[in-house]
Amino acid sequence: MSRICKQRHVSTCLLLTICAVLVAQLSGCASAVQSDKPERTVWLSSLNLEKMTSGWGSPQKDKSIQNKPLTIAGRTYEKGVGTHAASLMYVDLKKSCRSFSAYVGVDDEVNGKIGSVRFRIYGDGKLLFNSGVLKAGEPAKKVDIDLTGCKTLTLAVDPAGDNNSYDHANWADAAFVVAGDDPVAIDAPVFEEEKVILTPKPGPEPRINGPKVYGCRPGRPFIYRIPCTGRRPFRFSAENLPPTLKLDTTTGIITGTAPAKLGEYPVALKAASRHGSSQRTFKIVVGDTLALTPPMGWNSWYIHYNRVTEQHMRNAADAMIASGMADAGYMYVNIDDCWMKKRGDEPYRDAGKAVLPNNKFPDMKGMVDYIHSKGLRAGTYISPGPWTCAGYVGSYQHEQIDAGKFAEWGIDFLKYDWCSYGQVYKERMKQTNDDLLEKKRPYRQMGDILKQFDRDILLNLCQYGMSDVWQWGGEVGGHCWRTTGDLGLAGGADLSGFYHIAFSNAQHWQYAKPGQWNDPDYILIGWVGNARGMGEGKPTSLTPNEQYSYMSMWCLMAAPLIFSGDMDKLDEFTLNVLCNAEVIEIDQDPLGKQAPIIAQTDEYFIMAKDMEDGSKAVGLFNTTEIAINISVSWNDLGIEGSRRIRDLWRQKNLGTYKNRFEMKVPRHGVAFIRIFPTGSAE
Ligand code: GLA
After folding, report:
1. Taking a C-beta distance cutoff of 8 angstroms, is the pair 480, 294 a contact?
2. In this structure, what CATH number is given to the domain that contains residue 87?
């Protein structure tokens, strides 16, 4: 993080503190409520502490997080709650709380260790108190806030910018003055945010989208459906299309075999209709590298789990076309776990020893052909271990035969999930005692096998980031690799799981490049099922602004864009998040750079990505509970002079800026901009 950002952070803190004091002193929340009940004290520790989250351990009643007397800077408190950053609690004040008071600080039990925390209190979404950074050994800060008319209180503790080691945080002597019903601890309220659609509707005129470069191996089957928005019918044409390829001028699907000769084949794609025309250079690169841009598509896991059927897959392909997702560049239709036989449901394999689909997949080849007939690609899933993660048949000791079957079906993408391979790994380690060799072994084996077939098959390594997979995933034949555990299971006391996955994935930015991508897991928006218990689909609990942030981060990180919600329940808002052509262009940029986080404070972080044309894509992400101004300086970005700025979500020019750019960003929202040199074409 730059010095400038740190300074700015300090001044933002100061500003917020001043605002907090002012807000607290002036008005509290809203108008007062009359009550006949006598005023009394209700201790925070008498509320249901199971509703309070904490980054380590569980919050304690009238004790520190380690169950000792609450002590801050030598002073001991009888009452209060001991928790650990990051910690959050929501309280329904029943509109009857007059005030809240406490002493906050780090518990002495950390014994001079580095613990540092920050306490913030919000009333109905407004910041009422900000302690600033409090370190171990420092005296407690007094909290005394007016809550007249307030409905909901949020008590938040964050790790104050560093990690949360020794962040033992005390709400000492914490109490409400109440004149009506008792306050009640509640689950995180759903933030009612209006679903504002930011992506402008594509016009009737054609606009060709999708990647500008495309890698394939010589002489292999080729299939590509030109992504193009606008009102159909179009007349497609493709100048300089290699003679081994054929374009269907009505559907825009290119099929055939890739040229035999290695090299670059720039093709001028064109789509025309009575509403206008669009042209775009599409460079086919025949060589050894596939996935020159991150793969885009859909995966069945987070909506269908073990309920997945062949019909779901066929429907997903239909919906990918009908919804316009394919016109934005989505092309892989991937089955996840649970398509094979479940453990116990023998026989597992056919006469030739190849893995058998279960009875929900009566015609795997027919299904893949169907997906291909739409110009889309088909993906599948298996484990190198004896069983998949959900307890279905894996490929252990049948790798060659199973992969041969996949190739025969026409599969284009394989997710290879470690799961029960852990047992095999342990046995092998007894022989070699070489962790890296053994972690690579199953992936190298499958990487080598896939290259033998007459198909371009992408390999997705799913082993959750073990042994720094980003350093060797490409070497063993992978095109993308999961860098973390499952996003659907990721949680956080303060922010939704996708933020924590992004923070982790962002650290490996140096390793992403064309053909080799860090995979932070799927886009879980729209209707998704809870991964814990493989639940039925429900509308996402993410707010609209969180969804814009999610998609922006994934594009900045050049992540595979794989949606895993319900394809049958795609609503206008979800599609607006998934299908903004200018946003997707950031992900699909041919330079293939992943954005690092260039600045991070307790209020915001900034990601910046270098683009092929010399412009920069920048995301300013607000991690607080309120709207704040976030700015980025040219110094931080390594640029100078006048710059033209475009708002990517709104697809709107914001004008020319010098030295810095600042924008008000909503709670958990993003300002996603592209910074061009002035003089560059609009
Ligand atoms: C693991 C993977 C998930 C999903 C499940 C299927 O948890 O990480 O993405 O494939 O297995 O069982």
Report:
1. yes
2. 2.60.120.1060
Which one-letter DSSP state was computed for residue 363? T
Give the residue whose CA is nearest to atom 5 of ligand 1: 389
Mean pLDDT of the chain: 93
CB 182 within 8 A of CB 42: yes
Give catalytic status of residue 589 as yes or no: no
Identified catalytic residue from 62, 182, 318, 486: 486
From ligand 1's centre to the CA of 405, what distance in Å? 22
Verify whether ligand 1 is closer than 6 Å to residue 337 (CB atom): yes
Is the separation of the CB atoms in 60 and 81 below 8 Å? yes
**10 pLDDT more than 70:** no
Q: Tens digits of per-residue pLDDT, 17-41?
A: 333 333 333 335 655 555 667 899 9
The answer to whether the CB of 662 falls within 8 A of the CB of 604 is no
- pLDDT higher than 50, residue 572: yes
Number of structural domains the chain divides into: 4
Is it the case that residue 123 has pLDDT exceeding 80?
A: yes
How much distance in Å is there from the Cα of 488 to the middle of ligand 1? 10
Same domain as 353, residue 270: no
3-state DSSP assignment of residue 553: helix
pTM of the model: 0.85
Task: Report yes or no: 57 and 82 within 8 Å, Cβ to Cβ.
Answer: no
Residue range 243-294, pLDDT digits in tens? 999 999 999 999 999 999 999 999 999 999 999 999 999 999 999 999 999 9
Residue 380 maps to which CATH number?
3.20.20.70
Task: Answer yes or no: do 580 and 603 share one domain.
Answer: no
348 near 340, Cβ under 8 Å? yes
Tell how far the Cα of 464 is from the centroid of ligand 1, in angstroms: 10
Q: Catalytic: 602?
A: no
- Pick from 335, 340, 462 the residue to mutate for probing ligand 1's pocket: most ligand atoms within 8 Å of its CB: 462
